Amino acid sequence: MLRGMPHTDPSRTLLAGQLRQAFDDDRDADTFLLRLDRYGPELTASLQAVYGDAAPALMDRLLELMLHAYHARPADLKRLDEARLLRPDWLQAPGMLGYVAYTDRFAGTLRGVRDRLDYLQDLGVTYLHLMPLLQPRPGENDGGYAVADYRAVRSDLGSMDDLSALAADLRVRGVSLVLDLVLNHVAQEHGWAQKARAGDPTYRAYFHVFPDRAMPDAYERTLPEVFPDFAPGNFTWNEEAGGWVWTTFNTYQWDLNWSNPSVLAEFVDIILHLANRGVEVFRLDAIAFMWKRLGTDCQNQPEVHHITQALRACARIVAPAVAFKAEAIVAPADLIHYLGTGEHHGRVSDMAYHNSLMVQLWSSLASRDTRLFAEALRVFPPKPTNTTWGLYVRCHDDIGWAISDADASRAGLDGAAHRHFLSDFYSGGHPGTFARGLVFQFNPQTGDRRISGTAASLAGLEAALDAGDPRRTDDAVRRLLLLHAVTLGFGGLPLLYMGDELALLNDHSFADIPEHAADNRWVHRPRMDWERAADAQANPGTPHGRVNAGLRHLIGVRRSLPHLHAGIESHPVHSPDPCVLLLRRDHPLGVMLAAYNFSEHTIDFPAWALRDHLGDHALDHVAGSAFNLGGGAVTLEPYRALWLTQA
């Protein structure tokens, strides 16, 4: 048995000798030992912090798993590992562009996706996130997030061999495959849960099962409800298990007990197995909920960050080409910990969603006022320089109005009233709204109303086309391109949700599908319209053609601008006009200043507000036009975006 020792332990030499015997090739042994020397201390420290006296035995187990996975890792993936070690900022490059899609809705099957790779490459995609495709439970499955088998693909999509073949084709084109890894729970049909219900004590310990309501009731006093409409409460009685099972999300999703070291070992094995299949980025789903602590909301607990650091260290030792993305839709003060602070600085996830940016985009679009946007960004904690933000206009999920009362107050707003306004506006209930969205999960106790809808429908294109109004259609197209300009110009990894490049509208037929009817988020998950894709190229003057052409232009400009490397942060600076957001980036090559007009009005913007950052002369890279900032004003057309550098 190999005994895991901390970095300073005198038995490290003995450990190295034991490990070296496991290799036939000295070069492989050197590589593994060098990585273990680099990441082993992070791993052992995290294991000790979470599991205490159980940490050494767990380290033994993890070493065995890592050795096996390293030996099984294909040669081309080992070459990718070395390339990524030489370019650790690969996720931060301005040429990175993400695309997010459901396999079946994009191309039917994994083989169908392979047939559409030319389309993705032509768009500039370098990062392909295929939404949950691992084997879910039959029937209702939370959009695939109720996983029954982490080592199998949905049979209607293909096989694990099809997944590996797709990953290989993507690698040749310089595209990274991204998969969801659900960490908080498994489907009740998962083998672990089946064995737990059958009475196996080993697997019962993988879950939180209580014989009566005493502990569930104690936890419930401080737990929120995620889906109050159709999954109230956080515990479900299971007759076969003879107990109350912790089910944060849905009754059929059993929360895992991460205080059990075996659960961590299982997921290390799963991660390394999928990495060897060619998965390069793992979206760590529901990561905030993993650790349970009585008297708290059981989110964002410190152990989560130790566990993630341990998972990342194992991946770095075996497969350093792999990156982690945290799906933590939490307050900014909590979010930053998923990228690493203090002892975890830059050692947890490599990327996290900037949900606040998405929320503020839609808030400013509705209010035509960017002061709240600037205030929210001004107090946003800076991220570690080796990490990046995942930036998006829309995603597969609903929009929750995550606007803090403190941010709203500094911008002169009442937080509750503003959130109410946004829900009214985007569900079509506010006078003069351009949006067509649906209310998702109304909570009468808090008044919270989340919103479903595609980007195009929320930005006004659906209503404008129905009205046959060219002016309103033009405004909707401009709004969409403005939103994409902000995400592309912010300096992270922009993520396009499938169909946004074609301005796809709400799919109201979702209600005709029984398994989708109760969940109106399917309204913004339409099937890919390949006829529309061809028409967008053939007829660039159509609304979807204009969005497609404008977006492709922005992507090309972004790729050419080193100022947009994600190692640099964007920060708001004073704007004399509340309709205009100014974001500054201080790059070694010089200042970049972005200006965004969030209104349908032409604005004469004071030139001094730009000159103070750029001097007398500037170049707008979006339009390719030069500005003399020595004059009185710069004209900003409705919804115009400027990416300015010193000329």
UniProtKB/TrEMBL annotation:
<dbReference type="InterPro" id="IPR013780">
    <property type="entry name" value="Glyco_hydro_b"/>
</dbReference>
<dbReference type="Pfam" id="PF00128">
    <property type="entry name" value="Alpha-amylase"/>
</dbReference>
<dbReference type="InterPro" id="IPR055218">
    <property type="entry name" value="Amylosucrase_C"/>
</dbReference>
<dbReference type="Pfam" id="PF22582">
    <property type="entry name" value="Amylosucrase_C-like"/>
</dbReference>
<dbReference type="InterPro" id="IPR044077">
    <property type="entry name" value="Amylosucrase"/>
</dbReference>
<protein>
    <submittedName>
        <fullName>Alpha-amylase family protein</fullName>
    </submittedName>
</protein>
<dbReference type="InterPro" id="IPR017853">
    <property type="entry name" value="GH"/>
</dbReference>
<dbReference type="InterPro" id="IPR045857">
    <property type="entry name" value="O16G_dom_2"/>
</dbReference>
<feature type="domain" description="Glycosyl hydrolase family 13 catalytic">
    <location>
        <begin position="100"/>
        <end position="532"/>
    </location>
</feature>
<dbReference type="InterPro" id="IPR006047">
    <property type="entry name" value="GH13_cat_dom"/>
</dbReference>
